[in-house]
Write a structure and sequence with these properties.
Elements lengths: L2 H14 L54 E9 L9 E9 L5 H11 L3 H5 L4 E2 L8 E7 L2 E6 L9 H15 L7 E6 L2 E2 L2 E2 L4 E2 L18 E5 L10 E7 L5 E7 L5 E8 L8 E7 L7 E10 L6 E11 L2
Parallel strand pairs: 5-6
Antiparallel strand pairs: 1-2, 1-3, 4-5, 6-7, 8-9, 10-11, 11-14, 12-13, 12-15, 15-16
Helix pairs in contact: 2-4
């Protein structure tokens, strides 16, 4: 790979990034497998900007409590595919919020606020969010089900893809929390059976599985750390994948485009099924800096890198 070009692109990312996300750690045990990869990886995106958004809203009951002074949530937006061959795909973007017990409501507020102007103008571009004017009218969580009440503007979206994207962003944003497994949608206080002009069925509830294989979820989705989040050390990477024989390659690069580590991980199931993965990468850097987690599947046909994911994260000593 072109190491010099990778370093230049990472430096460009650092210059345009106006703020960083939060430190995120997973609770589950981690496994990491290292093995030199024969696949050449591509550099991270050439330009993108993520800024921290502070938003609050009111819920009918507190939803989830995070006992830390600085709080961060994920807002799931649409991000263009780095190869330009598909997408946009749903991905988590880090947002800083004011300390609150209602983090689920704060995450929805960040989703309503949408991507920043810099994010929308970046490469790859960040888009999506909920339709303009959408208001959160209520949110309760009970027995792992989130019941969310939104204003009628939530239906001001056109096209089958647009309608599915709105629902997917909403469901993925709410189900980032371990207290939420499925989502029931209400509009202006009334439960709905079908959403949008194309009548997508939303009853009895929606889960992440409702959107797998529909073109919105990439074949490799990194859930944690979020896009431009502080990765921690070691960086714990988790998500879902649909990969041949459940094998996914990974690499970690620093701000100069130098390889810090590489290897592979095994998802809990192989394609055509979706599986979960989680692994930890210890690393050494001299100072806080922007880096990149890169993941891909190695083609069974010719060994080339397919379903490439380039994920900018902040690294720390």
């Amino acid at each position: 790979m072109n190491v010099k070009r990778l370093g230049i692109l990472l430096i460009a990312l650092a210059m345009v990034a106006s703020a960083c996300g939060g430190s995120e750690a997973a609770d589950e045990s981690t496994t990491t497998t290292r093995s030199p990869s024969s696949t050449t990886t591509a550099p991270p995106p050439s330009s993108s900007t993520t800024t921290s958004t502070t938003t609050t809203t009111t819920t009918t009951t507190p939803s989830t409590t995070v006992p830390v002074s600085d709080q961060y949530v994920h807002a799931y937006f649409l991000i263009d595919d780095v190869t330009g061959e598909a997408g946009p795909f749903i991905r988590p973007v880090s947002r800083r919020i004011e300390p609150t017990a209602g983090v689920a409501a704060a995450a929805v507020a960040a989703l309503i606020a949408g991507p920043t102007a810099d994010e929308r103008a970046g490469t790859p571009a960040v888009s999506g969010g909920l339709p303009d004017g959408t208001e959160l009218l209520g949110l309760t969580i009970s027995d792992a089900t989130a019941r969310i009440d939104l204003s009628s503007e939530i239906e001001d979206v056109g096209g089958t893809f647009g309608e599915m994207a709105v629902l997917a962003q909403l469901v993925f944003t709410l189900t980032q929390f371990p207290t939420v497994g499925d989502v029931v949608l209400l509009i202006e206080g009334e439960a709905v059976e079908f959403y949008g002009s194309h009548g997508m069925e939303v009853t009895p509830s929606l889960t992440r599985d409702s959107f797998l294989g529909g073109g919105l979820v990439p074949e490799i989705l990194i859930d944690r750390p979020a896009w431009f989040a502080q990765a921690g050390n070691p960086v714990v990477v988790s998500g879902i994948a649909r990969a041949f024989e459940a094998t996914v390659q990974w690499a970690l690069y620093d701000n100069d485009g130098l390889l810090l580590d590489e290897g592979f991980t095994m998802a809990s199931a192989g394609g055509p099924d979706w599986g979960t993965f989680q692994f930890a990468i210890p690393y050494t850097v001299d100072s806080p800096q922007l880096g990149a987690v890169i993941m891909w599947e190695q083609s069974a046909r010719d060994g080339s890198a397919i379903h490439l994911v380039e994920h900018p994260v902040w690294l720390s000593p």
